[in-house]
Amino acid sequence: MQEQAKPAFEAEARLVADCRNRLGECCFEDPRDGNLWWTDIEGSCVWRMDRDGNTARFMLPGRAGFILPRREPGFVIGFPKQLALADQSLSSFTRLHDVEPDLPQTRINDAEVDPFGGIVFGTFDETPQMEDRRPVASVYRLGPDGSLKRLFGDVIISNGLAFSPAGDIMYFADTPDGRIRRFRLGADFASLDEIEPLAGRDDAPGLPDGGTVDADGSYWSARVWGGCAVRFDDRGRITARIDLPTKAPTCVTLGGAGRRRLFITTLSTRHSAEELTDVPFAGGVFAADIDRPGLEQRLCTL
Length: 302
What we know:
By secondary structure, this protein is an all-beta fold. Helix content is about 0%, strand content about 50%.
């Protein structure tokens, strides 16, 4: 890892939801109701937490790589091989598109609402043996008109999707590759041009998983197997670090009062029995109060 100056802001995250998710992911604070939502992919469920810390769990008909809010009541959900619309109670699901039906080893993974009301999402080669995984996955856009377009391929594990405040930069990470990549966007995805990466594989502990952007345009990265979340400025310098008691943060979002609370999901799979004994709340949701505000979650206009 490259030598970096000590971050200007450091804190320890605290447990706010002892939900013991197998694979917590895709968290966001819903501007429609102020609730925090996230998925437990391997648990085939979605969780909701209100501002008072009360949680509810919603069982799904399959694993969900992501859940994101619509402008209308309800959500868009990425099941392993299918995009679907869900009602607000998560009891009714309407198919939108099948995704990579010819690639049985892939499933839908990370996603984010884009600045134009669509959703960008990626897929994931989930071949059981990690050394056998190959760059057969891709990144797609679900347009606000319901169309589906492949943006690029040559991906193993899609993660880190986020957009700048102005909506002109898209961030993306293929977790095994380790870089946080950047793309310049044209209006409504008329163009997508890769520019220099924000950060490299050795610029922070662990590997990049989920990401989000704050109101200043800095990028937060959940560092899976690195036990922390870090904030990069636009020059790739780490300006903040939040440490966790568990080594596997998976996704980050900003919410709470003034959107100055960083929420972090984690996973409990791929831990030894001894590790889970030492850290029994692996798979929980953690939070830390930070020094800069986040952006309001965008809504899909589909």
